[in-house]
Amino acid sequence: MKTLIVDGQIAGASGDMFLSASLDLFYSEEIKIEADKKREKLVNEIARKIVQCTNISTEAEIKIKLERKNIRALEGIYLKISIKEPSRHLHAPQAFEIIEKASKLLELSDVAKTFSKRALEILFEAEAKAHGEPLEKVHLHEAGSLDTFLDVLGVAYLFDQMSLFQSKLCLLPVNLGSGTVTFSHGTLPVPAPAIVEILKKFAIPSFLGSIKGEFFTPTAAIIIASLIEQNKFVVKNGTPSMKIEQVGIGFGTKTLENSPNALRLILGETLDQDYPEEVISIIETNIDDCSGEIIGFLSNRLLEMGAKDVYLTSIYMKKGRPGTKISVLCAPEDEKRFAIEIMNQTSTIGVRINRSNKIMLSRKIQEFEIEIDGKKWLIRGKIAYDNNGDVVHFKPEFEDIKEITEKTGYNINEINTLANEKMIKILKKRNC
């Protein structure tokens, strides 16, 4: 499997830098001068089509000049982007209409289209949360520029062409910069409120650097956040063993005194075993004054709401009082929903939330039949595989076993034995 490392450790990341680095990966096997001519022609064609999809196409224009630079031993692409467009406030429906039209014109795949749309959704959601406004009232100032659409749709097109949406994603900690940033909402500390919301929600690794200024822009943040959602294999800590095949470098507009203002995209073949990973949230609270009936009711309710798991631990609290620790596993985006439900249904006044990486075996559900007294019954079976495709675990679905037991009058051990024997036969036949 391919692995893509996003390296914004030195100078953070901007949308333009992400687009430039992605372009540097494209046409990489051709002669550099000829490849750069093709890259410049391609990115201008993408820009032209994006402008066509707006309601300001007669007033707007994007011109891009590609320059190849070598700064402090790093060689890559700098895009000098000139944009002419009228000042406007962009609302969500207008933004999604541009994404929809441009996706068709650029012939993006469903994955690339979803990535583009989700990136803009993340931006509007973050702005709404940061400013305490309902989503329908949020409008974009600087982030509503055609530059944002060029960066997002340009990356979507290039990733689509290079099949990078199917790669494993590795994020190195992003340099946020430091100090303050001045924009339409005034002068605020780095990182700006919308960036903070995205960093928090998507658990993007980051740090405050020593150089003054904003180094992680909203466009780069939504590109990375949308990639995290599109990609099931997300590495948060450390890098995988890999054979590096290509490096794409994109330069930003700022000139730094002792460092290159560059974002690196490193592409290669993973050498170690790849298992699906995901980030999960663990919500916990300790309770010593709720009845067992309420705790049991809450456990079932949380599972019905879609929690990945709910488990209870007997504990001893202050003054030796017996209590229960309630633990809930859920997706990071569902934290608030489950936390509120726990506080609403119990006597607790607060919960603890931690995020953790989860590594999993590949799994799938397969249906099969067993026969009892001449009648066939359908059962679902869970099968887990290792990285080589070999079966590690298998188990019939208990609810199906339970239902057949209740309807046939046989005991549950007999039905469970029949189901396991049938699954073994199916799996042995497949391996023969």
Key features?
globular; Ubiquitin-like (UB roll); 432 residues; alpha+beta; 4-stranded antiparallel beta sheet; 5-stranded mixed beta sheet; 11 helices; Alpha-Beta Plaits
Describe this structure in words.
The protein is α+β, with helices and mostly antiparallel strands. It folds into three domains: 2-270, no CATH class; 278-359, Transcriptional regulatory protein pf0864 domain like (Alpha-Beta Plaits, 2-Layer Sandwich); 362-431, Ubiquitin-like (UB roll) (Roll), CATH 3.10.20. The chain has eleven helices and 22 strands. It has helices at 15-25, 32-52, 92-105, 110-131, 146-161, 193-202, 218-230, 292-304, 335-345, 398-408, 412-431, and strands at 2-7, 61-71, 74-84, 90-91, 139-140, 168-171, 174-175, 177-178, 180-183, 186-189, 206-207, 213-214, 234-235, 242-251, 262-270, 277-287, 309-316, 322-330, 352-359, 362-372, 375-385, 391-396. The strands form eight sheets. The protein has a five-stranded mixed sheet with strand order 13-6-1-15-14. α4 (110-131) packs across α7 (218-230). 34% of the residues are buried.
